[in-house]
Amino acid sequence: MRPTGKLHLGHLAGALSNWIKLQDDYECVYGIVDWHALMSDYADSSKIRVNCREVLLDWLSSGLDPDKCIICVQSHVPQHAELHLALSMITPLGWLQRCPTYKEQIINIQNKDLSNYAFLGYPVLMAADILLYKSHLVPVGEDQSAHLEISREIVRRFNNFYGEILVEPQILLTPTPKVPGTDGRKMSKSYGNAIDISDSPEDMWEKLRTMMTDPAREKRKDPGTPEKCPVWDIHKVFNNDDAQKAEIHEGCMNAGIGCVECKKRLRDHVERVMVPIRERRAYYEKDEDLLADILIQGASKAKIIAQETIDQVVTAIGFVPRG
Question: How many Cα atoms are found within 13 Å in the side-chain-facing hemisphere of 183?
């Protein structure tokens, strides 16, 4: 994940909930990719360090365990940059220009100048992040499968030139529930519509309370359509009471329940999830030495794997052997 700000409920419901399960069944590497953050924040990088800390805290509080997985910062493992350079030599521009996310973000992110090489070439660095660890599986949602396909194409091209060195990663499709932001669009730091994992109960309720609902319900007596309401989408993610969800759905359609009451019930279910997360965050937040040690140990473990890959890559390319 890029450290461009605090993580939100979309990250929790989508990626993090899956990552927490995967760490029990696989050898997992989770990276805070600060070089990727510089791609868009190069004009003012002053917040990257504090954002790395926030991401780490959000990960640990959500349930990632450094005893079960590798947690590291991308720039702490310099082999990421080295493999990125090698892969950039062989990647055709056309592959990058057709990337759907590149086109989407150029349109949606208007407050930053993204006309730099790094933004166009970020799939190459992303590929390096994956290939450096000979990753066999990459957990992504279906909407991200196009990104991974570029990595697979780069592997095939590299191996065609230099031999079977890199591993072609496979997609591990994971459920990605729809979590809209307060304005109804996809919850995103970039859109300014996020409910953050680190929000206090009061701040979280204020965001939920003012969240956009079905526009047809202008008044309390107006019936609505839950499928058109962003609040209902979040109910489907965090509300595990099927009977109550059926009641809310029916109540919305016949105006038997108001939007404020619907949001209050959602708040209760979100808070149920957030209580243990806040407890873990309080534990880690008070110990800066522990946070630093987690990253030091994570980078140390990652470098062992990464250097083996780099040694194989430079030998296959035919560079002068290193002393």
Answer: 10
Q: Which CATH code is given to the segment(s) 201-282?
A: 1.10.240.10
Angle at 142 between CA 140 and CA 147, to 5 degrees: 65
C-alpha distances out from residue 312 to 126, 133, 151, 247, Å: 19, 12, 18, 60
Return the amino acid letter for 310. Answer: I
| Residue in 129, 115, 122, 107 with CA at minimum distance from that of residue 36 | 122
Which residues on neighbouring strands pair with residue 31, listed in sequence order?
72
> Residue 314 burial by CB count (10 A; 0-12/13-18/19+): exposed, middle or buried?
middle
The predicted model gives 63-67 an average pLDDT of 98
Encoded amino acid at 158, one letter: F
What's the CATH number for 9-179+287-317? 3.40.50.620
Check: CB of residue 255 under 8 Å from CB of residue 214: no
Domain range annotation of the chain: 9-179+287-317, 201-282
Specify whether the CB–CB gap between 9 and 187 falls below 8 A.
yes
What's the Cα-to-Cα distance from 238 to each of 97, 160, 205, rounded to whole Å? 37, 47, 14
pLDDT at 81 over 90: yes
Q: Scanning the structure block, which residue is given the tokens 């230099």?
A: 162
Q: Give the amino acid at 102.
A: Y
Q: Could you tell me the two tokens for 314? A: 């430079």
The one-character DSSP state at 227 is: G
Q: What is the pTM of this model?
A: 0.92
- What pLDDT, on the 0 to 100 scale, is given for residue 246? 97
Mean pLDDT, residues 32-41 taken together: 91
Q: Tell me the CA distances in angstroms from 262 to 86, 131, 201, 283, one per residue in order.
A: 53, 46, 17, 33
Q: Which amino acid is at 211?
A: M
- Cα(186)–Cα(176) distance, rounded to whole angstroms? 12
What does the pLDDT average to over 222-245? Answer: 96
